[in-house]
Specification:
This protein has about 325 residues and is α+β, with helices and mostly antiparallel strands. It has 2 domains: about 5-215, H-NOX domain; about 230-335, Orthogonal Bundle (Arc Repressor Mutant, subunit A), CATH 1.10.10.60. The chain is built from 17 helices and 7 strands. The strands form 2 sheets. Strands 3-4-7-5-6 form a 5-stranded mixed β-sheet. Strand 3 (about 110-115) and strand 4 (about 120-125) form a beta hairpin. The longest helix is centred in the middle third of the chain and has 19 residues, at about 135-155. The radius of gyration is 20 Å and the shape is globular. It starts with a strand and ends with a helix.
Length: about 325
Amino acid sequence: MAFVRAAVLANYLDVAKAVGVDGRAQMRRVGLRSSIIETPDALIHSDAVVSLIEETARISGVDTVGLRMSQPRSMSGFGVVGLLLAQQPSIRDSLQMVLRYLPLINESLALHLEEARDHALLMEEVLTDTVQPKRQTIELALASNLKLFRNQFGADWAPRAMYFRHSAPAAMDDHQRIFRCRCIFDADFNGMSFARADLDAPNPMADPVLGRYAASLIGALPNAARNSVATSVRRLVHLLMPLRRATIKEAAQAMRCSVRKLQLDLAGESVVFSELLDEARREQACQYLSNPHFDITQVASLLGYVQTNSFTRWFGTNFGMAPSQWRKLQGKEQQS
């Protein structure tokens, strides 16, 4: 079970009120006390947060609740890690710190940076233990990531493009106001692209002394330990799978180690790569099949399969039925 800092809900009650929803009642529905918002460093179940935000959007009929929750936010939303991030010499260093201290920010978040020629791509996914919509949470997380860049480059900085796996909203006003760039929906991944040179542009506000102080504070925290290898690989698999690159070779390359070393590290945690891949596919298969916008061929591709038949056989082995049959049964359950 993954946890996230209560700071993620800092302005939830205000947004809920603005869209005509009783926010406190909704928090009780998912097992959260509204007073938890007053303790931003408290850890709460990430699945409860996802359910809360998605249900608020559904009840209100407002499909930009997540984006509205992202405004206004500052680096303080990252907690003590935010102090460390703000003092890093470059965005590249800040992103490395984010990956290192994800357990202190959001355990359900998966991030991966890729570079090619003159552009960079920051991919992101929100992992949940239960099958549920994640549109609002994804958009909240993507908008929050902009804070890292705008903290260094100023409020006018904008990425080259934003990518969303979900479909476009009825109106694009909030997306254009916040992202100020081209927004591509029904994409293979969630993320944003930007100029590669931005990664290493010097941060004029960086203070090495303050940075070392922040690092000492974080080091003293009981849950500041690095992620397990299996947890890091699991996050990578979720990000690389839609790109048909969820292989142990790609994972090792992303983690800057040899395939053999990664195999040994996973074995030390009693895990093998194929198990993590199967686990990710089982989780995402239900997510994708629950979305009527994806046909079976698209679902197969998003799970990393070149041939739909291979996906159908795998699904039958794991779920005891064809994916089309599973989808029909889910539709009947939702209607009843």
